[in-house]
Automatic annotation (TrEMBL):
It comes from Massilia cellulosiltytica. The keyword Thylakoid does not apply. It is found in: Cell membrane. The keyword Translocase does not apply. It is a multi-pass membrane protein. This is Magnesium transporter CorA. The chain crosses the membrane at residues 275-297, 309-330. Keywords: Cell inner membrane, Cell membrane, Ion transport, Membrane, Transmembrane, Transmembrane helix, Transport, Zinc. Belongs to the CorA metal ion transporter (MIT) (TC 1.A.35) family.
Length: 336
């Protein structure tokens, strides 16, 4: 019996969705065949956005056969480095953007990579897992967001990614506020472990999502000639906005670090107090154990063994010595 082929959420070519866009016009959905025809004969004033799923092996074959992308793009797909960056290659923009998965949770911190190729007449994006920012961008395009150029679509993607990161930071701030309130109330519970896990997640996000400053600086200083001045300005602004979000992320990371240190100091203080109390009890019990050991020896000549009030005399002496030791210890603990 024949079984249906698994398409990984895309068509047989690996295309997840495609749109034909132009300034001040509603986006038009296109399939792989229509996109192939348009790529061979681009229409001035229009650009196409094609989004591929790399989990489908047919997507890379289709791109090599019809998209005309430079070899640097395919090398980037298979590189081990996943640092976020935007570079120029053969007059086009190649961007490597790390993003959180769709329906992201701070507890799991799942992150994947999106590869973007931008030219004046087209934007090609490719990913292996569904991502949050690219899904937001698709919804905006379907809702009629005005996109006058391919670079503006890239800028929109970067801003959507910044918005996603802002929501993550807000969620993390709410968790840190809760932990801080419980710390002030004296209820530590498991907040130290939770803060440690949250701190590791934020460090990973900051390491993967922070763009390479050198690559962005080179691009903003010498962008491609086909990039309009207003698109250059928007790209610079989106970079600055993303830098502000990363600064907030770094500040939150430092706040968590200080909160962890405060919790650790309080835990150490409680442990020292418990250890000191245990030491006092042990020292106070030392005379009792010593006298009981001496009087319990099974030898002759034990004092007061025949005295009618010997037990009470030993008990009173023991209580006196114990009280004196307790008074001395408490006096030593008083501030001078």
């Amino acid at each position: 019996m024949a079984t249906p082929a698994f398409n990984y959420g895309s068509d047989v070519t690996g295309l997840v969705w495609g749109f034909l866009l132009q300034d001040a016009a509603q986006a038009v959905s296109v399939d792989a065949k229509e996109a192939e025809t348009w790529l061979h004969a681009p229409v001035p004033g229009q650009f196409v956005w094609l989004h591929f799923n790399l989990s489908n092996a047919a997507s890379e074959r289709w791109l090599r056969a019809h998209a005309g992308l430079p070899e640097e793009f395919y090398e980037t797909l298979h590189q081990g480095s996943r640092s976020t960056r935007i570079e120029m290659a053969d007059g086009a923009l190649i961007a490597v953007v790390n993003d959180v998965l769709h329906n992201f949770s701070v507890d799991t911190a799942e992150i994947s990579t999106l590869w973007v190729h931008v030219t004046p007449h087209g934007v090609i994006t490719a990913r292996r897992k569904p991502l949050e920012s690219i899904e937001r961008l698709r919804q905006d395009v379907l809702n009629g967001a005005p996109l006058r150029s391919s670079v503006e679509l890239l800028v929109h993607l970067l801003r959507d990614q910044a918005d996603v990161l802002v929501n993550i930071v807000r969620d993390a701030v709410a968790r840190v506020d809760t932990a801080e309130d419980q710390l002030l109330a004296g209820r530590l519970t498991r907040r130290r472990e939770d803060l440690g896990a949250l701190r590791r997640v934020l460090v990973r996000l900051q390491r993967l999502l922070a763009p390479e400053p050198a690559a962005l600086f080179r691009l903003l200083q010498r962008p491609p000639s086909w990039v309009a001045p207003e698109d250059r300005q928007e790209l610079r602004q989106s970079t600055e906005e993303f830098t502000v979000v990363l600064s907030d992320l770094a500040a939150l990371h430092e706040r968590i670090k200080l909160l962890q240190e405060e919790i650790a100091a309080r835990v150490n203080e409680d442990n020292n107090r418990s250890l000191f109390l245990l030491t006092i009890v042990t020292v106070m019990a030392l005379p009792i154990n010593l006298i009981a050991g001496l009087l319990g020896m099974n030898v002759g000549g034990v004092p007061l063994s025949q005295h009618p009030h010997g037990f009470w005399l030993v008990l009173g002496f023991t209580a006196l010595v114990t009280g004196a030791i307790a008074w001395l210890l408490l006096r030593l603990q008083r501030p001078h």
